């Protein structure tokens, strides 16, 4: 009970720190990380050891699915070179640099253990960076690159992590067997993710109750991860593929009354899991501090500081070098849809931001917590206390140093939003209203149908004017007005909204708009649909009484 009371209290503290972080413009994980570090110094707090098999599943699976569900496949394809460079090249260089530094500082550390440490601290957490960047409205491409990287760098780092941990516990691993295994794991994870997405969609399509639908979503996410792990595949890669395959069809299957509350629940769950991860690490750090003397603690701090510096420098070196090479090699590529010129390589300012956005987060913590702690199931992982201490120090150091300096750096570089998402939102509003107007034109020519057509014509003219002047237009009110609609109006609005949804899906399918614009307009349609349903129910209740 004592532990539960502490967790509840710290969740409230985490909520307060998140509100504070938004006011001062720093990532909320940085504030929570400081609270977790302080927890280890508070007398009387208990020492907890989380089940290693539970750590990655509990903390990574839902967070990863939430990020993958919001990713734009169109934008990822347009920036695949940069995303792959970061997810593979930057991660690989970081693993090598950290492993070498670890071996230099602790010569007795086996290479497999050093590589496992490198894999733990290699993947950055985009949530911390984008939490600040979205407030500053940077070019949309930066957000796409960072969010896309976070999906795949976890998979690449944890594949290496799994091999290194296995080699450290078994004593050795053969490269001849490791390479085919990586290939099988990658292909198998992709196939399993696609198959499970079809299965889950068939199940969720039959569920109309909100509570049941949300429970199935969460259980389905954990089931996807656990099944992949039972088959010795990559849980991360399977969840990423599962989420990206599901999101392409979920908009046409999941009703608005389920989608809107489920988004709110997922946002809450991701926040709680981030806070809990830092709390649990704080608990475990307290046990580590109790097992070592002051001289060992100084050695741990020196080791962790060196690894943190190596982690930051390795990413900056890779991003700067890759961006410079790309700018030298590539030429402007025309965007035939918008008429703009885009470059494949990152500018110097953009490369500076991407290189500095190397904050580590929940994946690093979960991977460290997942190392075997020893007991009935087998021996403890070599140097586990040192690795866990270092992982938390890297997370804390990068969040504080990089996270809190990101806003000033953005101000110095003067990188501003290019307005691409806003343009796509305005275009989507125009196209969907045209579809709605076309749907109402197919209705019989009575007085009510004519009135509804005129309302949609007015809304369409407003949207077209906003698109023409590159201005903004607020989401249109429901075509039925604010009063309770009669049955004929409700039927017309439902048909118009259905036409709008089909047009919106087509715009995303052909690449005219990305997922960021799609989700904003989809939310507007969802709110209109829910408003119509509420007013219709009110009208039915009044007529019945």
Question: What would your notes on this structure say?
Answer:
With 545 residues, the chain is mostly helical. The chain has two domains: 300 residues, no CATH class; 125 residues, no CATH class. 78% of the residues lie in helices and 2% in strands. The chain has 20 helices and four strands. The strands form two sheets. Strands 1-2 form a two-stranded antiparallel ribbon. It has a two-stranded antiparallel ribbon with strand order 3-4. A hairpin with a 6-residue loop joins strand 1 and strand 2. Helix 1 runs antiparallel to helix 2 and helix 3 runs antiparallel to helix 15. About 1% of the residues have low confidence.
Secondary-structure map with pairings?
Blueprint: H1 2-24, H2 28-39, H3 52-69, H4 73-78, H5 80-105, H6 111-121, H7 126-136, H8 140-170, H9 175-204, H10 210-230, H11 235-253, H12 256-291, H13 294-329, E1 333-334, E2 341-342, H14 348-356, H15 362-369, E3 373-375, E4 378-380, H16 384-413, H17 420-441, H18 447-468, H19 487-509, H20 515-544
